[in-house]
Design a protein that fits this description.
about 25% strand, alpha+beta, POTRA_FtsQ_type, Rossmann fold, cell division, three-stranded mixed sheet, transmembrane helix, elongated
């Protein structure tokens, strides 16, 4: 009997020792699993936090550009093309893009770990003119602040953007402004262009005539008429409405009117066969 008891106890102790050994093995396996997992996590964190931002070339994502292609804008910032995210200079990119005459503003956001988002705000033309460049005559856009600029892609001429001639411009360096005395006229043109009625659709050209006093006057050329209209420097909605009414009235009275003069508060006109009339 006692011999059986001892053998039973010994067997139980052996099974208990076997279970403890199995638990220790499983604990070691779990421990190594967590160690390996922690190492993988640390390596991935190092890659994400250090390697990608400092070694991988930054990915630039463009938005806002309508007249400039992404390839063109990428060439503009080509000095930064091989920079990593950490070495990509927002101020340098801003300076390079601002040198493009048709770009008014730039917003740059760096997003960890390797993205650079660049939003381009293009200038909005309110008028256009033509400038002789070498042996060519090229169209130049003008914004409401008087900045002259060109676009990478040619845009179809809009009837809401008038042609303004007579501005003294000899060359077109990027970002050049028209003389300050003409900027008030461009602000007036911009205000009229924002109206619901497209008044400039009836005008083919606004010509600036300088005066000896340093001031200037305007000559307007309606599209569907051979009559030009002389007026002062104030260009408003009311002034344009008055011009259109005067043009209709005078053309009703005379069929061969060459010029209508509205500069002095009354309506004077000159036909091609007379020296002048007024009423």
């Amino acid at each position: 009997m006692s011999d059986f008891v001892f053998r039973s106890v010994g067997g139980a102790e052996g099974r208990g020792a076997g279970k403890k050994g199995g638990v220790r093995i499983r604990m070691k396996a779990v421990k190594w699993f967590f160690i390996v997992f922690a190492l993988i996590f640390v390596i991935e964190a190092l890659v994400y936090l250090v390697v990608i931002p400092s070694m991988q070339t930054a990915t630039v994502i463009w938005s806002g550009a309508a007249s400039y292609s992404q390839e063109y804008l990428s060439r503009v910032i080509s000095p930064l093309s091989d920079r990593s995210w950490m070495r990509f200079s927002k101020s340098e990119a801003f300076s390079l893009l601002s040198s493009v005459s048709g770009i008014e503003d730039v917003q740059i956001v760096k997003r960890f770990p390797d993205k650079v988002y660049i939003n381009v705000v293009e200038r909005t033309p309110v008028a256009m003119t033509f400038v002789d460049v070498g042996s060519r005559t090229v169209p130049i856009q003008i914004d409401k602040n008087g900045v002259l600029f060109t676009l990478q892609t040619s845009q179809p001429h809009s009837s809401s953007i008038p042609l303004v001639s007579g501005i003294p411009i000899e060359s077109v360096p990027g970002g050049m402004r028209v003389p300050s005395k003409y900027r008030g006229l461009l602000e007036q043109i911009s205000a009229i262009g924002n109206l619901s009625q497209n008044y400039f659709a009836a005008i083919s050209e606004i010509h600036i005539v300088p005066k000896e006093s340093g001031n200037y006057e305007l000559v307007l050329y309606p599209i569907h008429s051979r009559t030009r209209i002389l007026t002062g420097r104030q260009l408003t909605e009311e002034a344009l409405q008055y011009m259109m009414v005067a043009l209709d009235v005078v053309n009703t009275l005379e069929s061969d009117v060459e010029e209508i003069d509205l500069r002095y508060g009354s309506i004077a006109y000159r036909t091609r066969r007379s020296s002048g009339d007024s009423f």
